[in-house]
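Researcher: I'm comparing several assemblies side by side, and this is the next one on my list. It has 603 residues spread over two chains. Same procedure as the others: predict the full complex and return the structure.
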Amino acid sequence: MRKLATCLLLLSAAATPAWAQLRLTITEGVTDPIPIAVVPFSRAVPADGGLDVAEVIQRDLESTGRFKAMARNDMVFKPTTAAEVDSPGWKQQRVDYVVVGRVSAQADGQVRIDAELVNVLTGQRISGPYSVVAASKLRNGAHRVADVLYEKIIGVKGAFATRIAYVSVDGKPPAQRYELYVADADGANRVRILESRLPIMSPAWSPDGEWSAYVSFERRVSAIFVQHRQSGKKTMVSARAGINGAPSYSPDGKKLAITLSGSNGNLDIYLLELATNQLTRLTDDPGIDTEAVVARDGTVYFTSDRSGAPQIYRVTPGSTERPKRVTFTGNYNARPRISPDGKQLAMLTQAEGAYRIAIQDLANGAVQVLSKGRQEESPSFAPNGAMLIFAGRERGQGVLQTVSVDGQISARLDADAGEVREPVWGPFLP
Amino acid sequence: MTMKNLVSISALLASLTLLAGCPAKKPDVPPPPPTPTSDTTGVEDPNATVGDTDASMGPSGELLSKRIVYFEFDRADITADSQTVVNAHAAYLAKNPAQKVRLEGHADERGSREYNIGLGERRGQAVRRALALQGVAETQLTTVSYGEERPAAAGSDEQAYGANRRVEIVYLK
């Protein structure tokens, strides 16, 4: 059984100078979250800019819904090395794990975070996660330490040191303003990479996290652009007659799967080779074929209403076989995304008259509806495959939500203003 | 093709209705959205290729001043009511072969965004075919689909959905 854990994690101003505009709330957590104490780290650096590294790590772990952190006021001792951790004492306080650590300056001016994990039940000390970063990237260093701590305890690498992209919309129809943002996975450090008075949609990440692809109507008609994250350099890669839509990078980053309609309005799937601008047509059907995604094995999954209503199909580029239908549960399945291990399909499905996020086991076809809202869309896997981020609605406004792939843990990322939609989770960064 | 048949049948039905006199107004016709549309609000639009449209562009008249064709949920066939509007524009455009229009297709907000781009396009194409059937040259017509991205009305109710499932006939300079 699950219970409703209402744990409001405000991204406090002290945590980051670059201000976070998204607020995370765990709406549903596990019944027995793991009790953990993240003790404030010793800080021997003025270069740390006042960032409370332990707080960032604690919030990362709590944001997964799998941990319950001890309040600092309840800590009798505040050790900073594993050797100083008195396991029996912490055990009495019903803590399973203690995280301690130190932030120090290196000779080269970089900052080093050392963290140690103590399993107070066994007394086992796991020293090791550490991170060396430029002082300006200390927050990212803290996320990287949290990634490793999460893996040591849960067994799956954390996805805290990753980014998300999403579209934000302000204003009332018909005078709306569209913006494309990239932010840390916790919503902090958001950067606006594009704005327009005409729609921006369908952002996608390159596999190395350096590029974003998206659809912009800034020329009144749709066109697909790719934009370099660091330099902001933007290139229009497809502005053919009719629809240019639904870009998605191939796993090698060299191609985009896209939707084109031509002037006769028939939407089909193509692969666009970015270096040569060469197009390969993958589908040819009078129905709507769109929202293609290339799985790691090269198979392309897409939405098609060739059978009368949208369903997910799969096609192998270079093969002469006709596309095969993949979804058979329900009358509406769209917007496929494939898990990093290639075993699961996430999609938008119609269930109980509502549009919800579902996951299908590709081996046995079993479908589980993960979300509970009325109008949800745009599922995207975290790079560790443990969670999905998607768009939902709260009091008529678009909000971002996450759900664990087992459906047990849900969270909401509220925006300060306006509507946020179409979240896409970026890759692990080197 | 089914779509073609549907269009021809509804065109035929509409002509019959026209012959029979003024079509009775259906009680559940979606209300007109607030006008003018985003093309014509005069809101500064630094990114757009501005200047190709204007609210005062195009012909006036009871039917010709109606520039919006509404659709049923998940449908792209032109209803008998809308057909009279389409017919009026078809007659005008056939007589004025230099006049170009852009058919802007839209969907309501339910379902997947890129799939809705497809639905909006299907509606735009239905109007394009209906106009072409009545003698409008293909060179006078372009289509664009905005899917659910440019709603005419805010809200998540049937009224807003009905106002948003539409094709706007935009007269170009």
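Model: For your comparison table: Chain A is about 10% helix and 45% strand.
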